[in-house]
Amino acid sequence: MKKIFFISSILVASLGTINAQNKETKTEPVLKPAQLKQLPDARSKDRVAEIAKLCNLKPDQTIKLTNLYVEYFTKSDALKAKKNSLELAEYAKQVTTLKNERDASLKSILTADQIKTLQQAKKEIEATKDGAAKPRN
User: How far is 81 from 70, CA to CA, in rounded Å?
Assistant: First the structure.
């Protein structure tokens, strides 16, 4: 009797486990704030906000830049996902092409003065990084 009870309880437990594995949950994944920050929309808004601090952007420029960076970050993420399947030279070539396309679009949206302001800010950031990386004597 104990053997029958034991075997039947194992059978019931295993059927419940199999049934639980077959159920698909259709709940939306809950994203943490750190994960939301990584989405192209959030990253593009941050980048455009940084540019807006440096340059006086018009509303139409802000919209165009936001769309540009959403597209850029989406393509960049897709390229990063394929990184392991590509040779290093091919990956580097595609990254360079993507950045060149972004820069060309950026130049068509911003004025010459705004581009100069961004380039100057980029040089200052690079100088700060270089200075921080070098040991002081």
Answer: 17
Give me the DSSP letters along 25-66.
Answer: --PPPPPPHHHHHTSHHHHHHHHHHHHHHHS---HHHHHHHH
Rounded to whole angstroms, the Cα distance separating 29 from 104 reads: 36
- The C-alpha atoms of residue 80 and residue 75 are separated, in whole angstroms, by 9
At residue 26 the predicted structure's pLDDT band, cuts being 50, 70 and 90, is very low
Q: What is the 3-state secondary structure (H, E, C) of 58-126?
A: CHHHHHHHHHHHHHHHHHHHHHHHCHHHCCHHHHHHHHHHHHHHHHHHHHHHCCHHHHHHHHHHHHHHH
- Asked if 61 and 113 touch (Cβ cutoff 8 Å), the reply is no
Q: Tens digits of per-residue pLDDT, 102-120?
A: 999 999 999 999 999 999 9
> Which residues lie below 8 Å from residue 79, measured CB to CB, with a gap of 6+?
91, 94, 95, 98
Tokens 């943490």, residue? 32
